[in-house]
């Protein structure tokens, strides 16, 4: 039997003893640790870590969860990783976040529902259990589709503070999508929803250097929650957000960003539209608007949330430009039906 050392980003190391044929995620869970994960079958990429040393086998995952270049660089999905020797694995989360807790369903009711554009809507859920939720800005929950056993993953776009009565979400309306279709056509105020979570290792860390945030479409949602925390706690370092969308109709939340820019001294933002026929003054992709000042000669923490092609494009751009940030945290998502 092999041992795996789990090195957490706060400097804490925990050792887990593997059983024959066991995955690292399962062994960690058995040992009282919960490496951030969701699907458990190599489809979501939530449990992505980096294997610093040791031999292992890994199969049964899809490219959207782990690209070929990531696999070559020894990134692993712990839900699929089976060690063949002693291994050292770096977990991109703090040990405190990974202390195992019992996941439970949280029930609440829809208290706000707004169609922001043809492609985007927001909704808010409130209730005693919702107010008691603990999550980090940037994390997400699985929201059960009413009348089914299916769920969809949505990032929080707000925090639960002492005076807050609800949590909010920002989602893309997907053609023939079950959850977005329900919210866009059938949902009414007072409908009951079930949330499960929180999940994910994409969350705001302590701000120790300049921060560059890159949002694609409804990937703006977790940054709105992060900015709430920054507004509350302050930042001694500049924070810049580049928000990229496909068409003009996808631009939402600009009023909120303008409000944050007024209230947070070190926060600035810009938005760009990829459509060449757009009337928006800034066109192109987020990579076109990453100025040297935002990168601070590499002494910068980059946060990225967007669809897989955007994540891959930004990663390729940074590699081509030899940009090596202090930290690069990302969450990639796909529109679910």
Automatic annotation (TrEMBL):
PROSITE patterns linked: 2FE2S_FER_1, 2FE2S_FER_2, FAD_FR
Residue ranges constituting the 2Fe-2S ferredoxin-type domain according to the UniProt record: 2-95
Q: Which residue range or ranges hold the FAD-binding FR-type domain?
A: 103-205
Q: Name the InterPro entries for this protein.
A: 2Fe-2S_ferredoxin-like_sf, 2Fe-2S_ferredoxin-type, 2Fe2S_fd_BS, BenC-like_FAD_NAD-bd, Beta-grasp_dom_sf, Cbr1-like_FAD-bd_dom, FAD-bd_FR_type, Flavoprot_Pyr_Nucl_cyt_Rdtase
Gene3D superfamilies from the UniProt entry: 3.10.20.30, Nucleotide-binding domain of ferredoxin-NADP reductase (FNR) module, Translation factors
Specify one Pfam family.
Fer2
Which cofactor does this sequence's record say it needs?
[2Fe-2S] cluster
Q: Which NCBIfam families match?
A: BenC (NF040810)
This chain belongs to the protein called Benzoate 1,2-dioxygenase electron transfer component BenC
- The protein's organism comes out as Marinobacterium aestuariivivens
Q: Which gene encodes it?
A: benC
């Amino acid at each position: 039997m092999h041992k795996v050392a789990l090195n957490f980003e706060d400097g804490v190391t925990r050792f887990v003893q593997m059983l024959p044929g066991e995955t690292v995620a399962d062994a960690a869970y058995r040992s009282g640790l919960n490496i951030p994960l969701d699907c458990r079958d190599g489809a979501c990429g939530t449990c992505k870590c980096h294997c610093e040393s040791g031999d292992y086998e890994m199969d049964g995952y899809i490219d959207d969860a782990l690209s070929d270049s990531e696999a070559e660089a020894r990134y692993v999905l712990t839900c699929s990783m089976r060690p063949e020797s002693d291994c050292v694995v770096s977990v991109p989360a703090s040990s405190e976040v990974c202390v195992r807790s019992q996941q439970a369903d949280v029930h609440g009711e829809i208290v706000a529902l707004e169609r922001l554009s043809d492609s985007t809507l927001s909704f808010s859920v409130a209730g005693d259990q919702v107010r008691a939720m603990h999550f980090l800005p940037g994390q997400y929950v699985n929201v059960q589709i009413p009348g089914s056993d299916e769920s969809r993953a949505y990032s929080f776009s707000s925090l639960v503070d002492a005076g807050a009565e609800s949590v909010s979400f920002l989602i893309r309306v997907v053609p023939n999508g079950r959850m977005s279709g329900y919210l866009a056509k059938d949902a009414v105020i007072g409908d009951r929803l079930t949330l499960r979570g929180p999940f994910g290792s994409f969350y705001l860390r302590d701000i120790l250097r300049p921060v560059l945030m890159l949002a694609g479409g409804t990937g703006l949602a977790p940054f709105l929650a992060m900015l709430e925390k920054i507004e509350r706690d302050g930042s001694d370092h500049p924070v810049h957000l580049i928000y990229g969308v496909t068409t003009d109709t996808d631009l939402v939340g600009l009023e909120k960003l303008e409000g944050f820019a007024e209230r947070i001294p070190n926060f600035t933002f810009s938005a760009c539209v990829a459509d060449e026929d757009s009337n928006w003054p800034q066109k192109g992709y987020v990579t076109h608007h990453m100025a040297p000042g935002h990168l601070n000669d590499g002494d910068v923490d980059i946060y990225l949330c967007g669809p897989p092609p955007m994540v891959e494009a930004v990663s390729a751009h940074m590699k081509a430009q030899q940009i090596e940030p202090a930290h690069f945290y990302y969450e990639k998502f796909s529109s679910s039906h």
